[in-house]
Amino acid sequence: MARINLKKFIAEHYKGGVTARDVIREGVTNSIQAGANSISVDLLFSRQGGLFGDEVRNVLDKIIISDDGEGFTQDNLNYFDEICTGHKDDIGGKGVGRLAFLKYANRVEVRSQLAAELIEFRYTPDFKLEDVVKTEKYGPRETTITISELKDQINTQVAKLINSMCDDLRLLLFLKKKSGRTISINFTHNSKQSFQDDFIFSGKDIEAQKTKTFEVNGETFDCYLFREEAPRKGIVAMLCADELCVEEYQISKRFDICRYLISITSTYLNQISNIERQKLEIPKTDAEADLASPISRETLMPRIHEECLAMINEVAEGDIDAFKCANIGKLQKYYPFIQMDSLNGDAAILDADEVVKTYRAQQARREDLLVEAMEAGRKVAFDDISHLASDDLARFIVHRALVIDSLANMPRESAEDVLHDAILRKHSNGNDIRENNVWLVDDKFLSYSSIYSDETLAKIVREVGTETESKQKRKPDIAAFYSKDEKGQPNKLVIIEFKKPGADIFDNSKALLQCRLYASELVDRIATVREVFAFSVVEIDDEFYKDMKRTGFKDVFSLSERVVYNDFVIGSSDDIPLHLYVMPAFSLINDARARNRVFEEVLRFNMGSKTGSGDASS
């Protein structure tokens, strides 16, 4: 028989790596194929310090899979010594699955008690039948595979891993039950994570609410609908090859009435699964389809989406319809400027981020078509241009709302870095308008012009920043020009700096002085600058607030926390006004949200005017 370089074969066929989920699925599947009805999966986690031994353990150290199947008979040992065996062809076996063990771990040990014989060996890339140790011993049949010395130390969430395994195996256990065989899998672990220590997943508890068949291009697809009660939620299509889930297609993450899983099988899916059953090699578009793979994702996924929702609606007594109504209400509240009926009828089942993504894609396509028409010299209606501009403004307001919402959820201790990146990413050249959000500070900076768009200005700001940092050990985080005079020269400057929470009154006061000195040096070097706005983003405690009030700072209206302001004159001639604002990060965010809501209200009114009513979905 020809030899094979097993190490190279594994490296070539498992290029994407192997996970605990892959290994457990392979082991459990082998147990089922060996006739096992009772299977146990023990997840052992390593202890990582701790005085009392009661700490949560996250790093998986060992996996033990046991079963009551037929075990390693002589025939099975012979198959085990052969790569790409054919004895499981009729049940979808590829003959290479066990190689995942070798990719995942440095040590794989097998112990198989037959009726009158104990079989033991260590499985390695150099395994040969002569390595098997056989001992005369009587006992109940039990085969155990111990996988240890894992090649990667990765944090493992027990709940996520076990739930994923149940999803992968649900259809297989259901179909075995239908054929008269009940299989039970017992998961145990010692991680002390918040998941029950002993969890049983049994085929006897699995029921399909509905089955359905549909055809695409002559290929048949069988669907099995399963339901899990709340708090689990979402709608997921499980694309299966040889009755095992290979790919999850998320239809809705937000569906919160319960959780629906639709397992989908097909001879077509069996054929296009890769050899390790880790992915489905489906052509992306119809243009990429061929005789071997005639159905593309472009054709298949919308049909799966449609069939899955139809199945749920048929058996769930209006679950989908109820969710659609509730979701449309939420979407209209938070995105009143998007016409929901323009999203191909899918808005009701989409999550908010998907709505925005779909909306933006549609608007971009409309813009492209309009530009193409203008370039080709075709007549373009003024209303089309006007509506496009209006819609583009709505898209910008959507962007602003998403930025503000993400910032509002950040922890206070992360405010400096997160807010800095939101306004202008560190080390960014600022040329891409999508990379900056200076409007967060004040909407007058919507006309912001990057310092980096002019090489001379950029050089001056870098030089002054370096000199300031050398003298003061700190420079403000952001400096930008947002206005130009009639000759195109920069005449207004905005400076923004962030101070980490926890600084004392002396550091905070020093930061204000540094900001003034930095601004003064800049205006001395750039003669066309006639006005400077500076924003110091810093926590304001009672002591710092009182000190600023004593030194002339005045209160500025804010919706939440205290904001103060003072005017100074800077420059060598003390003739350039500097407007200095001091505010906490969350005050900046809340005030930005309030300003953005003004735009939202205007757009909501416009939508109502456009449709003839206040209903934004009309």
TrEMBL record:
It comes from the Bacteria. InterPro entries: HATPase_C_sf. Pfam families: HATPase_c_3 (PF13589). This is ATP-binding protein. It comes from Komagataeibacter diospyri.
